[in-house]
């Protein structure tokens, strides 16, 4: 009788727990289930890529539709000795390094970046938290910079290394070649017709408009073309991806 | 050629049917019901987890801290962040999103499959079609009064859904869940590039987010009413019928007189 009672309790309890939220947390900690849970990212990426043209544009807006205040988020000032020196010099001696799998590594100052054909776009910035702000961004298309550097066909990802340190390591992000050569993917040095402020990522902020805010890396210092994300950071393609399980594909 | 004799069901068969069980829910309905129940449960829990990252709602294309929020849920943060309400129990935006964006696929493709199956097996046409006379104020009033008497079944056709029930199911299947799916897609920056009309339809990403929340509240309300009525209608019979398909007819109400044919109006 005790056996039956106990079995009934265990069975009932297990069934109940399966339905309870705490059961979800236990499931999410099982490596096998976690893989299933995390597979949603690849499915969503596959579906979205299948549904959208490679060059499909994110919506663009008019000047009247811009947010009156574009808030900052994440790190609003890298505040390292090097960065502060560049701010004090108004980035006159700052150079953007473009390297990795390229034939001609580049070191570009702000005037070099301004000499590329420019693209200006008024787009919506969507934070993963849920808020949106509309602003105007201007800069060269990343694709043109990569062509100037002679990016090799073996390159599959572009990695952005930033000036802001998180637990002592530079923030980094990565995108694939589809997004790298998308016409709206620009290295923005101007925001709302002024130089990008420190809060918004001076001197250069990546704009990758079909992705959520955290992919739009601020304070970009280095750009590397790579064949694989393994061995960079913890290998998941970005600071948030490595440390708190954010999706690398942030199109949704 | 001999014509087969046309006649109504013999009375003894009707009599037997009243005390027996009937096959009420088709396999497609039952499979979808349970998959969808799990999906909705996870979507609500993980959705509240995501909402907690920025519990303010706006209308229009943009909306953030300095913009006017039509709904600010921060005063209810303690409730919205309680562990029994969110997936995961502790605040974790990344994991909430993992749950939400995987089960969104279950919700969306599950609904699509159910809709196709229910058109083919004629569940929609037979059981959920709302006829014009049913939505007249007199009929709705009578239906509401019957609900208040806890009288949910038409004794002449006990397996038929009553009008309020049909409207609730039609509202959930054809309005609320599709709204959830499409407003959810409209919030995706990738989908806004793929389907620019989607964001136009809802009047901007923050409007889509607000409608997503309103429709989710509607679904929560549906679930509460649905579960309450299952309990009132006899939870064992109702749940069992959604597992096996077979539903025990309510105890036969003695039919005092055969219903007379309506007199032609003159």
Structure, briefly:
By secondary structure, chain A is α+β, with helices and mostly antiparallel strands. Chain A has eight helices and eleven strands. Chain A has two domains: 2-48, no CATH class; 58-244, Oxidoreductase, molybdopterin-binding domain (Sulfite Oxidase, Chain A, domain 2), CATH 3.90.420.
Structural class of chain A: alpha+beta
Describe the largest sheet of chain A.
5 strands, mixed
Number of domains of chain B: 1
CATH third-level topology of the largest domain in chain A: Sulfite Oxidase, Chain A, domain 2
Structural domain count of chain A: 2
User: Roughly how many Å is the radius of gyration of chain B?
Assistant: 23 Å
Number of strands of chain A: 11
First-to-last CA distance of chain A: 53 Å
Strand order of the largest sheet of chain B: 1-4
What is the global morphology of chain A? globular
Discrete helix count of chain A = 8
Structure characterization notes:
The complex is a heterodimer of chains A (252) and B (266). Chain A is 31% helix and 24% strand. Chain A has 252 residues and is α+β, with helices and mostly antiparallel strands. Chain A folds into 2 domains: 2-48, no CATH class; 58-244, Oxidoreductase, molybdopterin-binding domain (Sulfite Oxidase, Chain A, domain 2). In chain A, strands 2-1-11-5-6 form a 5-stranded mixed β-sheet. Chain B has 266 residues and is mostly helical. Chain B has a two-stranded antiparallel ribbon. Chain B has a two-stranded antiparallel sheet with strand order 2-3. The interface between A and B is large, with 52 and 49 residues.
Name some characteristics of this structure.
heterodimer; A: 252 residues; alpha+beta; Sulfite Oxidase, Chain A, domain 2; 2 domains; four-stranded antiparallel sheet; 11 strands; globular; B: 266 residues; mainly alpha; Fumarate Reductase Cytochrome B subunit; two-stranded antiparallel sheet; 60% helix
Question: What does the secondary structure layout of this molecule look like, with pairings?
Answer:
The complex is a heterodimer of chains A (252) and B (266).
Chain A: H1 2-19, H2 21-29, H3 31-51, H4 81-88, E1 96-100, E2 106-108, H5 110-115, E3 118-126, E4 132-140, H6 142-148, E5 157-166, E6 169-176, H7 177-180, E7 186-188, E8 190-191, E9 194-195, E10 205-207, E11 220-226, H8 239-244
Parallel strand pairs in A: 1-11
Antiparallel strand pairs in A: 1-2, 3-4, 4-8, 5-6, 5-11, 7-10, 8-9
Chain B: H1 11-19, E1 21-23, H2 27-51, E2 56-57, E3 71-72, H3 77-80, H4 93-120, H5 123-128, H6 137-148, H7 163-186, H8 189-194, H9 196-202, H10 205-233, H11 235-244, E4 246-248
Antiparallel strand pairs in B: 1-4, 2-3
């Amino acid at each position: 009788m005790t056996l039956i009672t106990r079995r009934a309790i265990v069975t009932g309890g297990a069934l109940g727990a399966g339905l309870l939220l705490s059961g979800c947390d236990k499931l999410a900690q099982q490596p096998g289930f976690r893989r299933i849970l995390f597979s949603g990212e690849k499915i969503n990426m596959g579906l979205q890529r299948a549904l959208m043209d490679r060059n499909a544009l994110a919506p663009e807006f008019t000047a009247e539709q811009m947010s009156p205040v574009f808030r900052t988020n994440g790190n609003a000032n890298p505040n390292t000795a090097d960065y502060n020196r560049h701010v004090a010099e108004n980035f006159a001696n700052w150079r953007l390094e473009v390297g990795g799998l390229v034939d001609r590594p580049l070191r570009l100052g702000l005037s070099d970046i301004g000499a590329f054909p420019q693209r200006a776009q008024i787009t919506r910035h969507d934070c993963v938290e849920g808020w949106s702000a509309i602003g105007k961004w201007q800069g060269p298309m990343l694709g043109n910079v990569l062509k100037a550097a002679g990016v090799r066909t073996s390159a599959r990802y572009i990695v952005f290394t930033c000036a802001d340190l998180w637990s002592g390591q530079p923030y980094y992000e990565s995108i694939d070649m589809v997004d790298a050569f998308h016409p709206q993917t620009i290295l923005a040095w101007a925001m709302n017709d002024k130089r990008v402020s420190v809060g918004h990522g001076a001197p250069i902020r990546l704009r990758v408009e079909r992705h959520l805010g955290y992919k739009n890396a601020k304070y970009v210092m280095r750009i590397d073309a790579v064949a694989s994300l393994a061995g960079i950071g913890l290998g998941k393609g970005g600071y948030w991806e490595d440390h708190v399980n954010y999706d690398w594909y942030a199109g949704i | 050629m001999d014509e087969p004799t046309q006649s109504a069901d013999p009375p003894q068969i009707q009599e037997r049917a009243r005390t027996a069980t009937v096959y009420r829910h088709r396999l497609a309905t039952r499979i979808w019901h349970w998959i969808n129940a799990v999906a909705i449960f996870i979507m609500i829990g993980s959705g509240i987890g995501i909402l907690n990252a920025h519990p303010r709602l706006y209308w229009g294309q943009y909306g953030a801290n300095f913009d006017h929020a039509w709904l600010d849920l921060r005063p209810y943060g303690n409730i919205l962040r309680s562990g029994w309400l969110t997936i995961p129990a502790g605040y974790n935006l990344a994991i909430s999103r993992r749950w939400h964006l995987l089960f969104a696929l279950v919700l969306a493709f599950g609904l699509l499959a159910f809709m196709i199956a229910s058109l083919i097996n004629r569940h929609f046409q037979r059981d959920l079609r709302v006829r014009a006379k049913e939505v007249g104020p007199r009929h709705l009033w009578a239906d509401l009064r019957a609900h208040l008497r806890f009288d949910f079944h038409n004794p002449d056709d006990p397996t038929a859904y009553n009008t309020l029930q049909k409207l609730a199911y039609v509202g959930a299947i054809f309005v609320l869940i599709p709204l959830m799916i499409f407003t959810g897609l409209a919030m995706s920056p990738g989908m806004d590039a793929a389907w620019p009309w989607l964001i136009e339809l809802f009047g901007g990403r923050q409007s889509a987010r607000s409608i997503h929340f309103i429709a989710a509240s509607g679904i929560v309300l549906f679930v509460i009413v649905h579960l309450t009525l299952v309990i009132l209608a006899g939870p064992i019979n109702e749940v069992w019928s959604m597992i096996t398909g077979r539903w025990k007819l309510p105890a036969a109400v003695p039919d005092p007189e055969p219903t007379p044919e309506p007199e032609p109006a003159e």
